[in-house]
Amino acid sequence: MRIELRDIHNFACQGAGLEVRSGELLALVGPNGAGKTTLLQVIAGLVPHRGRVLFDGVEVQALPARARRVGFVFQDLALFPHLDVAANVAYGLRPPDWPAAARSARVEELLALLGVPHLRACHPVRLSGGEQQRVALARALAPRPRLLLLDEPLRSLDPEARAVLGRELRLLQRELGTTTLFVTHDLDEAAGLADRVALMQAGRVQCVGRPEEVLLAPPCVQLLEAPCTEPAGGCSACG
Amino acid sequence: MNPARRHWSPWGLVPVALALGMWELAARLAPVEDQALFPPFSAVVRELYDLARSGVLARNFLPSLARVLVGLLAGALFGILIGAAMGWRRRVGGALRPILSLLYPIPALGWLPLLMLWIGVDELLPIAIVFICSFFPICYTTAGGVEGVDPRYIRAARSLGSSELRTLATVILPLALPAIFTGLRLEAGMAWRVIIAAELVAIPTGIGALLMRAESLVRVDTIIACLVVLSIMCFAFERTFLLLERRLTAGWR
How far apart, in whole angstroms, are the C-alpha atoms of residue A155 and residue A134? Predict the structure, then answer.
C-alpha cells in the first residue's frame, strides 16, 4: 500500500509531507522533538491534525484509528500487562473476520514466526526486552495490517540483540511485503535496514532518498549532528 | 509482594493472644459482682456458642448479612458503572462531579431520618443506607482508577481495531481493577459498621437490634459476642475482596 501525507499540521508537525511506496521499508530519522513519532500517530489516526492522509490514493483522515488497519509497534511497546502473550497477540483478531479456530492458528503462526511460541502463557512483565519486542511485533502483524508503523522498535535492546532482531525484521518485512515506516535514532540501523530514509526536522520532512543519499549528504549530516529549532532549508542532495 | 502476603504474618497473632489472655485474667481477678459488666473472654465464647446453638444468632445475623450483601452489591454495581463513565468520558465526569461532591460528604447515617420518612421502616431502609455508604467511595475510586489507566494502552487498543466500548471492557476496566478493589475492600467493612448503626437506631431485627436488646437486659456477654461477630464479618468481607483481587490480577501485579 502506498502512503501519502500532505501538509500535515498539528502540535508537532509543521506542514510535513511524505510518500511511502508500496512494499518498501522507509526509515524516518531526525533529532528529538522533530515530530517523527507524531507523524506515525497521524498515519495511524491516533492524534488530531490538519492536512491529508492518503492510503493508495484514498483519503483516510476521517477514518477512526480502528478502521485504518495499521499495525503499530509503539516506542514503549504498550503490551497489555493484564493479558498473557497469546491474548496480546490475539487482541486485534476479532470475529467475524477471525473465528476462534483461525484466531488460534494465527496466534501460533506469529509466535512461531517471531520465535516465541514457548512464551504464549507468560505475562509481559515476565519477559525480557527482546522478547517483549517480538511479542509487540507479533501483535501488530497479527491482523495482517496494510501498513506497519514501528516507533524505535529496537531501542531498548543491547547492540547484539538489536542487530539480530533488526536483520530478522528486515527479512520478515521482505517476506510479508508489508509497507513499513520505522522511526529510529540509529543512523547505522537506518542505513542497514531501510530501502529509503526520510530526514525529519522541526516538524517537517526535509529530505527523502536512498540511505547513502540522505545520510551522507552534507546538509543532512549537519542537521543530524547539530539539531536546531529552526526549520532547515531542505537537502539539495535529495531534492 | 502481593497485598495479602504483605498484610499476613503469624506474628500478628501474638498480640491478639496476649490481649485475650490479659482480658481473661483481668475479668477473673475482678469481683464476682463486676463480672456481669466485664465478663471473661471464655464467658463471651460460651455465650456466642449458646446464641449459635439456640438459633438466636442466625435469626439476627442472617437478615443483617442479606442487607449488607444486597446494599453493597447494588452500591458497587452502580458505583462502578457511574465511576467508569465518569473516568472514561470527561464530559460525564464534569457533569456529575459537582453533585456527587455535594452529596458525598453527608454521612450515610445522616440520610436515616429522611429515608425513614420517605421509604418507612422496612427492609429497604438498611439496604438503602448500605447502598449510599458504598456507592460514593466506590464511584470515586473507580473514576480515579479509570482515569489513571496509562493512555498508551488505550492507543494500542485503538490501533488494533478495538471499538471504544471494547477498549473500556477489555483494557481500561481490567487495568482499573486494583483501584476498584481498593474501594470495595474499604466499603465492605464500612457496610457492616453502618448496618449495625442503622439497626441500632431504627430496625427491629438484625445484629444491631440484638445488641440493643442485650443492652436493655444488661447482657454484656451478648453485646461482646455480637461485636465479635461484627468484627469477624468485617474481616471476612475485606479478606474476600482481597483474595478476589489477587485472583483477578494474578500474573501481572
Answer: 13
pTM: 0.82
Nearest to A206 by CA among A30, A5, A3, A20: A30
* Chain B residues with beta carbon closer than 8 angstroms to that of A85: none
Asked if pLDDT for residue A235 goes beyond 50, the answer is no
Element (H, E) at A198: strand A196-201
Confidence at A129, pLDDT banded by 50, 70, 90? confident
Say if CB B240 and CB B185 are below 8 A apart.
no
Number of domains within chain B: 1
Residue B184 placed within a domain: yes
Q: Using the beta-carbon criterion (under 8 Å), do B156 and A72 form an inter-chain contact?
A: yes
CATH of the domain at B209: 1.10.3720.10
Amino acid of residue B126: P
Q: What is the pLDDT of residues B143-196, one digit of tens each?
A: 999 999 999 999 999 999 999 999 999 999 999 999 999 999 988 889 998 999
Tell me which amino acid residue B34 is: D
The answer to whether residue B168 sits within a structural domain is yes
Domain presence at residue B206: yes
Q: Tell me which residue of A190, A181, A147, A146 sits closest to A16, measured CA to CA.
A: A181
- What is the extent of the structural domain holding B182? 44-249
In-domain check, residue B93: yes
Min CA distance, A75 vs chain B (Å)?
A: 10
pLDDT exceeds 50 at position A228? no
pLDDT of residue A226: 58
| DSSP helix/strand/coil, A206 | strand
Least CB-CB distance to A46: which of B150, B155, B177?
B155
Which ranges of chain B does DSSP label H, i.e. alpha helix? 3-7, 13-29, 41-54, 56-88, 90-103, 112-119, 124-147, 151-159, 164-167, 173-201, 207-216, 220-248
Q: Which amino acid is at B104?
A: Y
pLDDT of residue A41: 93
Distance, CA of A203 to CA of B153 (rounded, Å)? 25
Minimum distance, in Å, between the CA of residue A107 and any CA atom of chain B: 14
Round to whole Å and give the CA distance between B182 and B3.
11
Q: How confident is the model at residue B250 (pLDDT cuts 50, 70, 90)?
A: confident
